[in-house]
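Exercise 4. Each item below gives a protein and its sequence. For each, produce the structure-token representation.

Item: Endo-1,4-beta-xylanase (Polaribacter aestuariivivens).
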Amino acid sequence: MKIKIYKHNIVYIFTAITLFFAVKTNLYSQTLEIVINPNKNFQKIKGFGASDAWRCQFVGLNWPDEKKEKMAELLFSQELDDEGNPKGIGLSFWRFYIGAGTAEQGKNSDIKNEWRRAESFVDADGNYDWSRQKGQQWFLEKAKSYGVENFLAFSISAPVHWTLNGKGYNSDLKSGRINLRKDKFDDYASFMVQFLKYFDDQGISFDYLSPINEPQWEWEKKTQEGTPATNKNVLEIAKLVSNHIEKNDLSTQIVITEAADLRFLYSNHGRSSRGNQIDYFFNDNVNIKNLDRTITGHSYFTTWPVENLIAVRQNLNKKLNKYPNLDYWQSEFCILEKNDDVKGGPKRDLGIATALYVARVMHADLTLANASSWQWWTAITNANYKDGLIYLDTGNKDDMYNLNSLKFDGNFHESKLLWAFGNYSKFIRPGMVRVETSSNNKLSLKEQYQNVMHSTYLNPTTSELTTVIINYSDEDEKINFKNLDINKMYVTSSDKNLEKVSINKSDDLVIKAKSVNTIIGYLKK
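Answer:
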């Protein structure tokens, strides 16, 4: 009798396991059917970008022309090669870092790594030298020549001769107040606007100015320029900058607040005088003529675990919905946070893992928080760190990141991250609008973020539709667009760099495992 029960149990267990995997297979392996609704619109896209911070100063100044020209092409080109593959990722935003003068201080700046110092256009006597930051100016001019649509200048510290401690960092001042002498607030505002005026006269108009960066951190470490600032400090400087913009008859708009963590935008998050920034800056009592109706924040420390990635952006969106016509930009990101997927920032990764991780963050910001712009931290890096799109090294395995030799020459490497970023930046251009998509996907949002994610953008002029699909999973996925006539497809994967691939229109699309894909077409007639 016991033997019979045992046999029946085996049958029951086998049947249960079979049913479990049948259900699981049905959930995860069915053809994903996507329907696009171009009549339901979300945010208008402003652009995708990166900054010149730190590394462009030496690459643009000293590196051989052939190498830096190729890097510029990779970042800015919108052209295709003879096989129809993109030559570059076509950035539509370029961020210029206005230095604070720690480079002139040299070792006295206390910042040991000279790559993290920066020159200043103004000296202690108020004299301007526009030949400073020449390497960055080289990339700025290249961005202009390639047709980059948006230029933003940002400052992270006032010039050192105006700070409270005479340094570009905040030393031991931990009150949260800005590292800037009170009698120099207006000088600082005037300096930034003189910067705008000079380049406007040279034919490069900066669309935006960001006067304060990550004000929630104390910036007491001797590693880079930076200053804290209270909301009151930021508001006062924004007003002064606006006044100087008016006096100089410029069209530049001020964007704030480059929050160090998205949670500072909608909550205090432990910094009462530096948090709740949407409420503080965009309530009805604030009236600054040249303040753009945009709030900017950084996605650092809000991307892991996946539940947190989702929840933070949902909370941000709830707050944004209370302020009609207020745009949100994700204005700075690289890998800092420890996580299971790519471990964290240390050790560069030219492969697909980091590219997928960042693509997922982009997807979350674009679809959950309705970001109208998404900007990467630094375009070029010389560090063994996941913070660049293009990576530099010496080529010498025993001394890969020699800071002195890399000032003048070295090797540069494309990354999968560069090209996955291009799946968005190359094809989703300024003025396009995100539209609604629906599917037969029954997975939870968390499960989707570990499998297949998709979003679609409409060109209102041509009616062309661009869909980006991220397959985070280890398995190929079949996709069927119910109402899209597909013309082109570009893939970034372990063996492809934003490569144009052939399409069999009679079959379902196969989205390869661990890939980022851009699909372009028109609604079926």
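Check: The longest helix spans residues 2-29.
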